Amino acid sequence: MMLQNATAQDMKAQDMMSRGTMSLSEVEALAQELFTAQKAGQMIPVLPSSCPDFDLNAAYEVEALLKRMREADGHKAVGRKVGYANKAMWRVLKLETLVWAHMYDDTVHYNEHNRAALALAPVRSLKIEPEIVFCLKRPLLAEGLDAAAVLESIDWLAMGFEIIDCPFPDWKFQAGDFVASFGLHAALVVGEKVPVQSDAISQLVEELPRFQVRMSKNGEFVEEGSGKNSLRSPALCVAELAVAILRRFPTQLLGAGELVSTGTLTSGHATQSGDRWTAEVTGLPLPSLTLVMS
């Protein structure tokens, strides 16, 4: 289904958002609390989801306010990061689709030499996740896209490390808490960009579900993951994200130049200063990526 009437769909989306029972003042207060906690590296001892009026609609209202706060601080949203790119988790958390949050110009770091160092402060509890990163060359405006159709809209792909920082005790939270807390996003390190050529798309469609990534820490093997761990293929993850955004925010679609970090290919692993992580890729024409936490 192509986007035909953005105004009418936006009104429908806003009506969906307004069905939550959390007041605007409560949403604003929660957004300010989460914004302040992130800047100061403070924990949030009480989950937003512990409030009976908090739901996923309220979480996206908070996320939108956080985006405006970041923009007011002079930063630009440059893409979206995906959470719960695993349908098994949807059943557990009673989700209908994946969730997402924005990434920003000061949280995304490019490294064309596939070896990077990253210092973050202040932080609370960090984990590292290997992910496939895509950059769009044109907007995604339709539902029902297959992997090939998505890749036709992709400019380049790269191996990436997302660093997530949890403000909640013991890494325990619900999907709405995730969305409302910047999607736990602290940083994204992007490796060498590999252009998506039209004549290579059919091969990429076959490779993306099957490729392997081997994670090691300080030279020791930690875990191996596969492209199928991102909704059976990172390209299909982008298709799902496009539909999820279209249905909730019809005028805020994935646009040209946006980055999409498509969800972790392995478990998230705790990390700290001094760790050296390497993601070795096989079965996909991407070089390995090494990151030193400093």
Textual characterization of the structure:
This protein starts with 5 loop residues before the first helix and ends with a strand. The protein is built from 8 helices and 14 strands. The longest helix is centred in the N-terminal third of the chain and has 17 residues, at 24-40. It has one domain (6-293): Fumarylacetoacetate hydrolase, domain 2, CATH 3.90.850.10. Residues 1-19 have low confidence and may be disordered. Strands 1, 2, 3, 5, 6, 7, 8, 11 and 12 form a 9-stranded mixed β-sheet that branches. The protein has 294 residues and is of the alpha+beta class. It has helices at 6-18, 24-40, 56-72, 87-93, 147-152, 175-180, 201-207, 234-248, and strands at 77-83, 99-104, 108-110, 115-118, 126-136, 154-165, 185-190, 194-195, 212-217, 220-226, 259-261, 269-270, 276-282, 289-293.
List the helices and strands and how they pair.
Elements lengths: L5 H13 L5 H17 L15 H17 L4 E7 L3 H7 L5 E6 L3 E3 L4 E4 L7 E11 L10 H6 L1 E12 L9 H6 L4 E6 L3 E2 L5 H7 L4 E6 L2 E7 L7 H15 L10 E3 L7 E2 L5 E7 L6 E5 L1
Parallel strand pairs: 1-11, 3-7, 4-14
Antiparallel strand pairs: 1-2, 5-6, 5-11, 5-12, 6-7, 6-8, 9-10, 9-13, 13-14
Helix pairs in contact: 2-3
